[in-house]
Amino acid sequence: MSSVPGKAEQMVSYAVAALAMGVMPAPLSRDSDRDAALHNLAAVAGQRGWGVDVLRDVAGPHADLLFPGGDVEIVEAWSDLCDRMMLDAMQDVQEPRLSRRVRQAILCRLPADDTRRAAAGKAMAVAFAPHGRAAFRRAWVRTVNALWQAARDDSTGVTYLTKRLSLGHIYAMVFLYWLNRGGDAAAMGAFVDRRLAAVRRIGQWKARLVGGLGASPAKAAE
After folding, report:
1. Per the CB 3.0–4.6 Å rule, which of 59, 71, 99, 117 could disulfide with 63?
2. Phi, psi dihedrals of residue 93, rounded to the nearest 5°
3. Full-model pTM
């Protein structure tokens, strides 16, 4: 039987692959009542899970009517709310370097908060179920797109897609690290720095390779 970490890695890899399609999922329904119910549920989800029965307990006997899709819709909506909270927190960031804005957005989206991490772990249990996989992929695509929006990247065309694919891989590694060890903010920051540095090195290597292939034989031999 597969371990929970193994299942999480598999789900995340499928979600990253969904980015290659380059299609944004439809926006979710949003209103203050849904957001308030989600906040109440997220506060206890790490211990009690994301079930509709728990939602009724913490947000009122009719709170389930806000999420007709049940636990899958609840978890997908919570991810969307976390994306929006991250975007709000990034609005006043003045950092001039794109890479540092990306770093800050990732750390804002995945805070060193044990309650948030425990809730995310329980949310993965919903994602593991067959009826939760498509919702998880949609949420992942929205989050990666929101991270680029928060970093104020204005790429278009092929660059738009390749950047999101690259960030999808980075975010996958960081997300899995965060689930297991994300309670240490300094360690989280260092992990993100290593992942971003690795991508930069790959980009520099590709640039040198392309430059070498485009140079004259005499120039390339120098």
Report:
1. 59
2. -70, 130
3. 0.85
